[in-house]
Write a structure and sequence with these properties.
Blueprint lengths: L1 H12 L2 H19 L5 H4 L5 H19 L4 H6 L1 H7 L4 H20 L3 H10 L7 H26 L5 H23 L8 H7 L2 H8 L6 H25 L1
Keywords: Cell membrane, Membrane, Transmembrane, Transmembrane helix
Pfam family, one: ABC2_membrane_2
Protein name: Gliding motility-associated ABC transporter permease subunit GldF
Length: 240
């Protein structure tokens, strides 16, 4: 499994496209936080709320961009047949692809810690709430895991990387915000709106971002991640 993970890491960072994707991610977040209108410096108080509200939508694009070639390129190039001849179980292949893509997303997120230290240093009085910031970062990593698992699954369905990207982008956006949007419809009431919102990622991300670790939120993120990895494994078995 780790050999596949290292292969994914090597292939990503050996291409200019991969590096550009991470640079664009950091650049867009930096511009929103420090340059564009209503940025942190104009707010007058030390907070990274704008970053933690905006970053999930960047991840909706970044995770599919990183994972879209996971299996699509294997199918298109005919190397998937060679991959199956290796002494690896389908679950190990899926795990290697997932961890390779997930670690790349984590590498993209780590430099954003500079935002925390910068804003905290610039604060004239009380700095950033470290507990809430830690919870929000943990939420981002959980989001990255879910979006990566979804993107790897979509990539396992097609040999076209562009289709894999678009499909994963739509799936991630719907899972993140679709249930919340559905719960706001006037026809959904009587407690059903809460149940529907509870199914969406946004509800659990907002919950964990408050800095309080709730077992239900952690179980939710892990369950959704493993569910899509299981679907990917089953899809590979069907192709065997």
């Amino acid at each position: 499994m780790w050999s596949i993970c290292k292969k994914e890491l090597g292939q990503f960072f050996s291409s200019l496209t991969g590096i550009i994707a991470i640079v664009v991610f950091l650049l867009v977040n930096g511009l929103v936080l420090f340059v564009f209108r209503n940025n942190i410096l104009d707010a007058g108080y030390a907070s990274l709320d704008a970053f933690f509200s905006f970053a999930p939508w960047i991840l909706v694009f970044l995770c599919p961009a990183i994972s879209m070639r996971s299996f699509a390129d294997e199918y298109r190039g005919g190397t998937f047949e060679l991959l199956r001849t290796r002494p690896l179980r389908p679950g190990q292949i899926v795990g290697g692809k997932f961890w390779g893509a997930f670690l790349i997303v984590c590498i993209a997120l780590l430099p954003t810690l500079v935002y925390f230290f910068t804003v905290n240093h610039l604060a004239s009085a009380n700095g950033i709430d470290a507990g809430a910031a830690a919870g929000s970062y943990l939420g981002l990593f959980f989001l990255a895991a879910v979006f990566t698992a979804v993107s790897v699954y979509i990539s396992s369905l097609t040999a076209n990387a562009v289709i894999a990207f678009i499909g994963a982008l739509v799936a991630c956006a719907v899972l993140y915000y679709g249930f919340h949007a559905l719960s706001q419809l006037p026809l959904v009431e009587g407690g059903a709106d809460y149940v529907i919102e509870l199914l969406g990622i946004d509800f659990h991300y907002q919950s964990i971002s408050r800095g309080v670790l709730d077992t239900r939120d952690i179980v939710y993120f892990l369950s959704v991640t493993f569910f899509f990895l299981y679907l990917t494994r089953q899809n590979l078995l069907l192709r065997a």
